[in-house]
Amino acid sequence: MSDPAAELTLSQVQKRVDDWISQFEEGYWPPLAMLARLSEEVGELARELNHHYGHKPKKADEPTGDIALEVADILFVLTCLCNSLRIDMSHAFDRVLEKYTHRDSSRWKRRKM
């Protein structure tokens, strides 16, 4: 396993996930199955956030959740979906940031630096 403190690019994340998935004959799930899985993982994150920041405390017998792990689960499943559809996440992210930059350039008040 690589150094956990090392920063990964999105391309490296995609390769690591593909390397891991490629060791199994089944490969990637179909896109709609992965979307269902992604929805489940987002629900698990929502539950942990609600327990931590919301109005729904955990029951006494419920184990403490790990918000960071739930976020990583989402990233993993999203990466699987992108890999299966041959979406370059770095390129897609650049495109969406450009969209937000133009669309929302005057939407909020800028911080004074």
Detail the topology: elements first, then pairings.
Elements: H1 10-21, H2 31-53, H3 67-84, H4 89-103
List keywords for this structure.
mainly alpha, single chain, 113 residues, Helix Hairpins, 60% helix
Describe the protein.
With 113 residues, this protein is an all-alpha fold. The protein has a single domain (12-102), classed as MazG-like (Helix Hairpins). 60% of the residues lie in helices and 0% in strands. The chain has helices at 10-21, 31-53, 67-84, 89-103. Helix 1 packs across helix 3. The longest helix has 23 residues, at 31-53. It starts with 9 loop residues before the first helix and ends in a 10-residue tail after the last helix. The model has no long low-confidence stretch (mean pLDDT 92).
Largest sheet: none
Which second-level CATH architecture applies? Orthogonal Bundle
Question: What shape does the CA trace take?
Answer: globular
H and E order: HHHH
Q: What's the CATH superfamily, by name?
A: MazG-like
CATH topology: Helix Hairpins
Q: Quickly count the helices.
A: 4
* Broad structural category: mainly alpha
> Which radius of gyration do the C-alpha atoms yield?
18 Å
**Can you tell me the residue ranges where pLDDT is under 50 for at least 5 consecutive residues?**
none
Q: Helical percent range?
A: 55-70%
| CATH C-level class | Mainly Alpha
Kindly state the number of beta strands: 0
What's the overall average pLDDT, rounded?
92
Q: What's the number of structural domains?
A: 1
Calculate the terminal CA-CA distance, rounded to whole Å.
Answer: 41 Å
Content of β-strand? under 5%
